[in-house]
Amino acid sequence: MTDAYPLAWPQGWPRTDRAQLRDGSAQFKRPRDNGRYVSAQPWTFAEARDALVDEVWKHTKSPPVVSSNFQTGRNGPMEGKRRPDDQAVAVYLMRKGKPYVMACDRYRDAEGNMRSLCLALEALRTLERHGGGLMLERAFEGFVALAAAQRPWEILDVVPAASADEIRAAWRSKIAGAHPDLGGSEAQAAALNQARDAMLKALEAS
Predict the structure, then answer these.
(1) Where are the beta strands (DSSP E) in 82-143?
(2) Sign of the dihedral defined by the CA atoms of residues 33, 49, 76, 23, in that order
(3) Which of 112, 141, 170 lies at the terminal end of a domain, its last residue?
(4) Exposed / middle / buried, residue 5 (Cβ in 10 Å: 0-12, 13-18, 19+)
(5) Which residue, 115, 127, 147, 151, shows the most beta carbons closer than 10 Å to its own?
(6) In a 3-state reduction of DSSP, which class is residue 58?
(7) 92 touches 52 (CB < 8 A)
(8) What is the pLDDT of residues 85-97, one digit of tens each?
(9) Taking the chain, what is the end-to-end CA distance rounded to the nearest angstrom?
(10) CA–CA separation, 109 and 140 (whole Å)
(11) Quick check: pTM over 0.90?
(12) Is the residue at 13 inside a domain?
């Protein structure tokens, strides 16, 4: 089962370097009428979330999962007083009996990542509406989730309460085989690094 909180980033998907993150509030704006004039304003967290959830429901008949590092409520992720450092968003859904995932971490803010996902889904739906059914299926196949996103301890093959030494030892054991020169891939190495960092960070916070 995929968790809505904390973020369940799809295994094998590379993460965007933090130095390359963009400002979603500057990228995505919507017109607002204050009664005197219309101006373009950034999307609020709730607006971006509700638009994404509404769009996802147009692609699936089963309850989707919007996963992030924001606590979840009845309507999905909730904006708290303090924002997490990692505001990436992943959407898991069943479409025509198959599991799919789409994820975005291109923007510093969750609003930008949610809007990006929403627009991508809208574009795919537009493609289908204009006779691109086969192209749409192939596009979704590109996002297919072969299995539910693994938790960090599952990736490292340790128990959830592993010590820092156990985490590092498991990482060292697996990272060698994940090197591209030894039959692995950059994606596998990235997943191991992320799992190690996430577990060590959780230990520091506990």
Answers:
(1) 89-95, 98-104
(2) negative
(3) 141
(4) middle
(5) 115
(6) coil
(7) no
(8) 999 999 998 887 7
(9) 24
(10) 25
(11) no
(12) no
Q: Are 2 and 8 in contact (CB under 8 A)?
A: yes
Give the pair of three-digit tokens for residue 143. 């996002």
Q: How far is it, in rounded angstroms, from Cα 75 to Cα 66?
A: 10
Q: And the tokens for 9?
A: 């980033």
Verify that 186 and 133 share a domain, yes or no.
Answer: no
For residue 52, give Cα distances in angstroms to 14, 47, 80, 89, 174. 22, 9, 18, 11, 37
- Token look-up 């929403």 returns 118
CA 1 to chain centre: 15
> Where is the domain boundary, 114, 141, 168?
141
Tokens 């606590």, located at residue: 71
For residues 3 and 6, give the distance between their C-alpha atoms in angstroms, rounded to a whole number.
7
